[in-house]
């Protein structure tokens, strides 16, 4: 079920990035794509928590989204790529891996 959670996290990144492209939901194409990615992410998360602990699954899901969105913010939107930011994103990755290892199932 971890692969479903990973996929849910990837769709979370997609909808979070889509928020930027939708310009406050004023651009129809990006808005529709964002809402579809959001729905898919939620459905996959709901499926994952049928077999994974909710606390672990939710934390991993949000962690994947945070890491991916922060990384793409640097790549796509010219957000600052500082050593401190990279270090803190790295801490989130450590947390995700730790939760996966300690999550059972």
Describe the structure.
This protein has 105 residues and is mainly alpha-helical. The protein has one domain (1-103). 82% of the residues lie in helices and 0% in strands. It is built from 4 helices and no strands. It has helices at 2-22, 28-48, 54-77, 83-102. Helix 3 runs antiparallel to helix 4. The radius of gyration is 14 Å and the shape is flat. It starts with a helix and ends with a helix. The model has no long low-confidence stretch (mean pLDDT 95).
Compose a concise summary of this entry.
With 105 residues, the protein is mainly alpha-helical. It has helices at 2-22, 28-48, 54-77, 83-102. α1 (2-22) crosses α3 and α3 runs antiparallel to α4 (83-102).
How is the secondary structure organized here?
Blueprint: H1 2-22, H2 28-48, H3 54-77, H4 83-102
Helix pairs in contact: 1-2, 1-3, 3-4
Distance between the termini: 8 Å
What gyration radius follows from the Cα positions, in whole Å? 14 Å
Order of helices and strands: HHHH
- Classification by helices and strands: mainly alpha
Shape: flat
Mean pLDDT: 95
For the record, the count of structural domains works out to 1
GO molecular function, one term: transmembrane transporter activity
Subcellular location: Cell membrane
Membrane topology: Multi-pass membrane protein
Keywords: Cell membrane, Membrane, Transmembrane, Transmembrane helix, Transport
């Amino acid at each position: 079920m971890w692969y479903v959670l990973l996929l849910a996290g990837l769709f979370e990144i997609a909808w979070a990035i889509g928020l930027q492209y939708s310009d406050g939901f004023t651009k129809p194409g990006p808005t529709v794509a964002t809402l579809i990615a959001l729905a898919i992410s939620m459905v996959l998360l709901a499926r994952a928590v049928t077999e994974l602990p909710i606390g672990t699954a939710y934390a991993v899901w949000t962690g994947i989204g945070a890491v991916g969105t922060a990384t793409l913010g640097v790549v796509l939107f010219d957000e600052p790529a500082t050593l401190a930011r990279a270090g803190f994103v790295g801490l989130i990755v450590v947390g995700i891996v730790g939760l996966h290892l300690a999550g059972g199932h």
